[in-house]
Write a structure and sequence with these properties.
Number of helices: 9
Radius of gyration: 20 Å
Strand order of the largest sheet: 2-1-15-14-13-12
Largest sheet: 6 strands, antiparallel
Helix content: 25-40%
Oligomer: single chain
Distance between the termini: 14 Å
Length: 349
């Protein structure tokens, strides 16, 4: 019994040290913007640490409970919100978007499913040169949709998978049209409140957000404050904020079917096929990959001043999340490598 306890303690200490080493490869400067990281299994925190500064001007350290902009991890919430409306009988993922937006070009051939899976062929607004003309403007959802809807399409719906922010902006617009509520309110009432995510928000640079991490860019001359953006532009494709603890609550709410029944939830986590029958590795709001041969659900995010990454291993109920408050540091490979170490630790024990 004593030997078992001692061995477990040594393994735990070894895991912590090994994870520290992985993180410090990218986040080694204690005086620079940094990141926060967490590993949980079956809801229990195995690792949680913060590295670097939350605010350079105040010389304030980061802490693990600070609030970060999560960028495209927002797409998970938009996808689940869409499935909630389907569960309520208010839409079908097979509906053409012309059912709700009458004048959308080719809207009778583009379905909600195409938007969710990045297979619509709609032009991604983040790749349009004219994006700079609206980046700091307050845009209504229909204005955002009008900004890109008449651009030439990249391919016919269902022909290929091509990661696309525009599709998720259209989904946010549909959520508002169909629910009769704003996207921000819908997410707050139907997801954040139900999951107990008390420190998650639709982003704003004007609202006072307790324990908000400041965002940074890195230039040749050093670090600078992040470029301001109107969050109405990324909208439902990338404008949410959260914490490590709240993201665990999010994962637990999905697992326990607090937000959706199991049949509807499963739609988010299955692989789909293109028109030619070829399978691709994206569900609704998650990349479906594997790490060391073990199935994973993954998604990262990037927005001015911030980057994020989350990996979930369903077979082990293992969730690894990392946030960075400088878009010069990507937590993607760090989080994936942390996941590999955690899996090795689980197999060893």
């Amino acid at each position: 019994m004593l030997f078992f306890f001692s061995s477990s303690l040594i393994f735990a200490q070894t895991l912590e040290k090994r994870i520290d080493d992985v993180i410090l490869k990218e986040f080694s400067d204690a005086k620079a913007p940094g990141g926060v990281f967490q590993v949980t299994q079956k809801g229990k925190v195995l690792y949680q640490k913060a590295f670097g500064k939350a605010n350079l001007e105040l010389d304030a350290n980061l802490h693990a409970d600070y609030v970060f902009e999560i960028g495209s991890m927002t797409k998970q919430f938009t996808a689940i919100a869409t499935l909630m409306l389907e569960q309520q009988g208010k839409l079908s993922v097979n509906d053409p978007i012309s059912k709700y937006i009458k004048d959308f070009p080719n809207g009778d051939k583009i379905t909600i499913h195409h938007l969710l899976t990045h297979t619509s062929g709609i032009k991604d607004f983040t790749k349009m040169k004219s994006i700079t003309t609206i980046a700091q403007k307050e845009m209504k959802p229909e204005m955002m949709v009008d900004f890109f809807k008449n651009e030439p399409v990249d391919f016919a719906p269902g022909e290929k998978f091509d990661y696309n922010n525009s599709g998720y902006v259209v989904l946010g617009h549909l959520i508002e049209l169909i629910s009769g509520d704003s996207y921000e309110n819908f997410i707050q009432k139907n997801i954040f409140d139900k999951a107990g995510m008390n420190h998650s928000y639709y982003a704003s640079d004007r609202k006072i957000v307790l324990k908000r991490a400041s965002g940074y860019h890195k230039k040749e001359s050093g670090y600078v404050n992040k470029t301001l953006i109107s969050f109405s532009v990324p909208f439902s494709s990338g404008s949410l904020m959260s914490t490590l603890e709240d993201m665990l609550k999010w994962q637990n709410a999905l697992n326990k079917n607090i937000l959706l029944n199991s049949q509807e939830t499963e739609k988010a986590f299955q692989k789909y096929r293109l028109n030619n029958g070829e399978e691709f590795t994206y569900g609704y709001g998650w990349h479906l990959k594997d790490i060391n041969g073990v199935a994973s659900r993954e998604h990262g995010g990037s927005i001015f001043g911030f980057k994020s990454m989350g990996v979930y291993i369903p077979s082990e109920d293992l969730y690894v999340v990392g946030f960075s408050n400088c878009d010069c540091h990507s937590p993607t490979e760090t989080v994936r490598n942390m996941t590999k170490l955690a899996l090795e630790n689980i197999n060893r024990n």
